[in-house]
Amino acid sequence: MRKSWLAVVPLAVAVLVSATTASGSRSGSGGLFRLGTASGIDSLNPYVAFNQDAYSAFEYIYPVLVQYDSHLHFAPFFARSWHASKDGRTWTFKTQPHAKWSDGKPLTAADAAWTIDIDLKYANGATANEAGLVSHITNATAPNATTLVVHYKQRPNPAYVLGQFQQFFILPKHVWAQHLGKKGAGLKTFPNNAPVVGSGPFNLVKFQKNQIAIFERNDSYWGPKPKVQEFGLQQFSDDDAMVTALKAHSLDAIETVPATAMKALRQARFVVSDVPGLDQTDFIINSNPKKKHHRELLNLKVKEAFDHAIDRKKIASVVFLGAARPPSSIIPSSTGAWHDPRLEPPSFDIALANKILDKLGYKRGPGGIRVANGTKMSYQVVTPTDVQSIPRAFSIIQTDFAKIGVQLAQKALDSSAAFSLMSGPNNTYQGFDLAMWDWTALIDPDFMLSVVTCDQYGGWSDSGYCNKGYDKMYAQQQLAPTTAKRRALVWKMQAFLYKQRPYLWLSNDDSVDAVSSRWAGFENTAQGPFNELNVQSLTQVHQK
Amino acid sequence: MRGIDYVLKRVGFALVTIFVAVTINFALFRLAPGNAVSNLSRVPHATQQLRHALEVQFGLDKSKGEQYLIYLKQLVHGNLGVSFENEQPVSTNLRIALINTLPMVTLGTLFSILIGTLTGVLAAWRRGTPTEAVTVSSALGFYSMPTHWLGLMLIIIFAGVLPTGGMTNEFLLNPGLWQHLKDLASHIALPSLTLGLVLYGEYTLIVRSAMLETLGEDYILTARAKGLKPWTIVRKHALRNAMLPVTTLVALSLGYIVAGAILIETVFSWPGIGRAVYEAVLERDYPMLQGAFLLLTISVVICNLVADLLYFKLDPRITE
Hints:
The complex is a heterodimer of chains A (544) and B (320). By secondary structure, chain A is an alpha+beta fold. Chain A contains 17 helices and 23 strands. In chain A, β16 and β17 form a beta hairpin. Chain B has helices at 2-31, 49-58, 64-76, 90-125, 130-144, 147-157, 177-215, 218-225, 230-256, 262-267, 273-283, 286-314. At the A-B interface, α1, β12, α7 and α13 of A face α2, α4, α6, α7 and α10 of B.
């Protein structure tokens, strides 16, 4: 009898002591800022990392040549200035003098040149994770400690060059050169454990996967010093638990607020920021030109009819509780000037959709389901289980599609199985008709424009779309001589895809964060407050 | 002699079970739809070559037969391989996750065993009374509650009193041992309590059922007739004889401790083995899955073996 009470003793003790341990107690000049995340850092090795939080962490601990300012224009960072040669094939960056790594070793342009060269050398193997950032480059040199010279095969577009370098983390040669291993394989297995040797505004001093990352102010940082002494990134695998922790002041901010918690947090006097984000949910139509079954889905008129049968306003209000907006293009409006503002979200018009399908001669058969080329317009929609908004968005679309005589059934799979089914054996894209997923764009449009190129079969392509004319435009925008000419091409490509419709865009999700009213300077962006765009947010955050 | 035969047979059976499980572990995850490199190769800065590079690196370009032989060879040398996801040794990943899981799940399981046994005995002894009705219905109630829902309810109830996520308050700077223990106790309370509450109903029902059976035996009647105290009858005569099915259940439960508790670890952001396995399934991280399931297999087999050997000791009929 007595023994059975032993198990409850720790619980009782825990309840009694919890009040003393619920909040952080680190102190120092500027204090500690505690940020909650639902994602987290998956690896501290840039050649292995996958999650956005990992790349955001690298932005704060490694030098980067350029960053975005608050207007999404390129601003100096480790590179204080830059210029291109007359033929545009050689770019020279003047880098920060007298900079140091966190272990006291000098940080020079030679580190940048080494990182570029190592990425090129093992681009087909160990560094393939980062190789897209150095495409078109032949080599890089550092004639002196503050000069980096990068040579290109062809004249690249200036915005493309800076856009790639904005995402390129310079690694300490004296650390990483010791871990090359055979054919660079060691670069991938090097865990890069904390404390990480870096040279950003913060040093990553503690890291426990799936739990915590602690960043400490780097006093030898060559740029403006952060206002807080430390910030911590605590990972939560449940949104509700994270929101509760914020409400209990066990956290100072959370980087992604579930739509259902926005109202409650505002009522609890937290500052909730809601800005257009880079994430867009999509309805994918298998657009593989060699598709064998349901070839009616390649008909642009059918795609147009489907587009008019999607109630985007309802999806934004019901699924996202207003924290989303109807999108119009593969490039979201939050990317600034790269988005073509002339494109409008398609209207929700069931009558028009029916009229288009009637005109095509697709008559309704048993159960009101239309028949196209002798086959019922009844499709399976592949959906990944890890995109939380999809089940509710699907049921809205399913109901409306039934009104135009198109039957949809959901096939939910985890993302690996879903992508495997969609790309099919040998990347033939024969195994699916329709799907739903989401994309997270980058500010530079190159990545999003690439996902519908023929080259991406088996890679990023989830639509099977392949058009040589489009691919030609894609290559041209990388090499356009000026930013204005590149933008014109990027807009032309968006307009082209708008009509081709490999994707029917469903929602452009907002980036929503929440911060305690005790703090100021925490800046939300399209990529969230802890982002890869610049180091503004966590260097400026401070206690009121 | 018969005893040695029995032990040898059980040990041999355990070894065969482990080998079969090793083989199934290898085949099962590869039969599942999806590809180990499809997620890992989809990073924004990657080129098309990444997919092939990963396949070569992970040995997935080799035939399944070759992969199986390499896997067995590594296993014989005690090498569980390298995780596809974070490129670190599987043994290291598992060790970290297991160290995190064991205290939480052990505490929850012990809570459930002790409370479940107590309430099971009480329900049987007070058969037909309101005590039994309350005990059984609350056991059934907790047993049928979805684990994650119960966890969330406890989070809401204890919001601001107990931490809602993580193992410790990582923002504490160099905490002393006592402060660390207090912190750990406050973090472990809710997940362990959730697990304990969900599991204890099972023990209550099984102990009650076993107790009811033994309480109807003639020797209990004899004990009562001899004028023994009720608690003595329960403790010395009824409970001891009801322990056989409970032993099996406890052994199985202890075996599954190393599997963690996926839902609880997810709700409470507990970085344990359950979540590690769940993530490995999503990523098709074959070495991690093989390692985790091997660990689980060995643990369950050993605990079953211990239960078998305990039976040998507890039940003389086995040797007759």
